[in-house]
From TrEMBL:
InterPro entries: SH3-like_bac-type (IPR003646). Keywords: Signal. The keyword Nucleus does not apply. Pfam families: SH3_3. Residues 35-88 form the SH3b domain. It comes from Pontivivens insulae. The keyword ATP-binding does not apply. Residues 1-18 form the signal peptide. This is SH3b domain-containing protein.
Length: 200
């Protein structure tokens, strides 16, 4: 795997739980000991239960809310489901943003000011030979990071997407991603994927 250290984070990776900002990381509140917070197939108390969180659960990724804010779509294991939003509160856990795709397999994990790791099927990048050129965020919450490595220019962009799927699990994500690899020889590749917020 290739690993490219990148020293700039995606700003959205530090977002707190808020109904106008997703993804975000939450913890369970208001659930009695011995009880659970049910995760349902849809945003209704009559929908099928597809999972459950214990009363001390933390690090839960929120990827969407219903228009009335009563239900939150969350990811757990290999699927997504809905929980009552009143039982969620902002988590204090550190987080990072991970963007990834499957054709081919690639990923970039952004760990805040300490940098991040870029991976592709080809091998390893040397952190000392990479250079971050720019990072921008526009009004539509699209974030772009550009870095150089030897004979290639790498551009990774995250952008809001209502239900991004990685094609391998039943999870749905709040951010899509694209990776553009441009080689000095004049050719390039465009890869697509999703981004997820991860509790560290």
């Amino acid at each position: 795997m290739r690993a490219l250290c990148i020293a700039l984070p995606f700003v959205i990776a530090t977002s707190a739980v808020a109904q106008d900002i997703v993804p975000s990381i939450a913890r369970v509140i208001g659930v009695a000991e011995g009880d659970v917070l049910n995760m349902r197939a849809g945003p209704d108390a009559s929908d099928e239960i597809v999972g459950a969180f214990p009363p001390d659960a933390d690090g839960i990724e929120i990827t969407a809310y219903t228009p009335d804010g009563r239900w939150a779509r969350v990811n757990a294991d290999e699927w997504s489901g809905w929980v009552a939003a009143r039982f969620l509160a902002p988590s204090d856990l550190p987080t990072f943003l991970s963007c990834f795709g499957t054709e081919p397999f690639w990923s970039i994990d952004l760990y805040g000011p300490d940098g991040g790791i870029w991976s592709t099927p080809e091998g390893e990048f040397s952190p000392t030979t990479s250079e971050v050129l720019t990072r921008t965020v526009d009004v539509d919450m699209r974030e772009t990071l550009i870095a150089l490595y030897e004979d290639r220019r790498i551009t990774v962009t995250s952008f809001p997407e209502t239900a991004c799927s990685d094609g391998m699990s039943d999870k749905l994500f709040a951010l899509g991603a694209s990776a553009i690899i441009q080689y000095d020889e004049g050719w390039g590749e465009v890869w697509s994927g999703c981004c997820t917020m991860v509790a560290d």
